[in-house]
Amino acid sequence: MASSSSYILFIFNFLLFSISMSSSNGDFHDDLLESITVSRMEKTTDLHFYFQDVVSGKNPTAVKIIGDGYGFGTTFMIDDALTHGPERDSKVIGRAQGMYSAAAQNDMALLMIVTFAFTEGMYNGSSLSMLGRNHVVDDAREMPIVGGSGVFRFARGYALAHTVWFDPKTGDASVEYNVSVIHF
């Protein structure tokens, strides 16, 4: 009988101890969170560059991987130059790598899945990821920036695209991008 009363006493003390630890209004929990939280300053960065989409010639940077013509479902894999100016021979500052697909059956809208990988200057080695709808017939198109790496870790923001020139015979284009991102 003594062993069962010691067992009951042990359980009672254990429960009492557990209740007293959890009724501390979360002081321990809050203190722990405060000690591991890192204070970060968010920055806003505005970028301006050009996307050189080359579908024609011997060395295209956009290659059709599926689909007929340019209709619904047609998909291109890209490794396009990002340049300082709108001319194809302007200084290359990075690459636009990913794909775009004709995503609308009755409209000219693309699904853009693109990483802007920077290779020059203070953003060398950093990247931004864009995922969104590009209604190419509009003069200005807005697409979301959903992430980044390097300097742009935890990036979020938007990209505004404007077609500078487009050759309907070849499909080649130069697109101006103004990108605004918030990051740490």
From TrEMBL:
<comment type="similarity">
    <text>Belongs to the plant dirigent protein family.</text>
</comment>
<keyword id="KW-0052">Apoplast</keyword>
<keyword id="KW-0964">Secreted</keyword>
<dbReference type="GO" id="GO:0048046">
    <property type="term" value="C:apoplast"/>
</dbReference>
<comment type="function">
    <text>Dirigent proteins impart stereoselectivity on the phenoxy radical-coupling reaction, yielding optically active lignans from two molecules of coniferyl alcohol in the biosynthesis of lignans, flavonolignans, and alkaloids and thus plays a central role in plant secondary metabolism.</text>
</comment>
<dbReference type="Pfam" id="PF03018">
    <property type="entry name" value="Dirigent"/>
</dbReference>
<dbReference type="GO" id="GO:0009699">
    <property type="term" value="P:phenylpropanoid biosynthetic process"/>
</dbReference>
<dbReference type="InterPro" id="IPR004265">
    <property type="entry name" value="Dirigent"/>
</dbReference>
<dbReference type="InterPro" id="IPR044859">
    <property type="entry name" value="Allene_oxi_cyc_Dirigent"/>
</dbReference>
<keyword id="KW-0732">Signal</keyword>
<protein>
    <recommendedName>
        <fullName>Dirigent protein</fullName>
    </recommendedName>
</protein>
<comment type="subunit">
    <text>Homodimer.</text>
</comment>
<feature type="signal peptide">
    <location>
        <begin position="1"/>
        <end position="26"/>
    </location>
</feature>
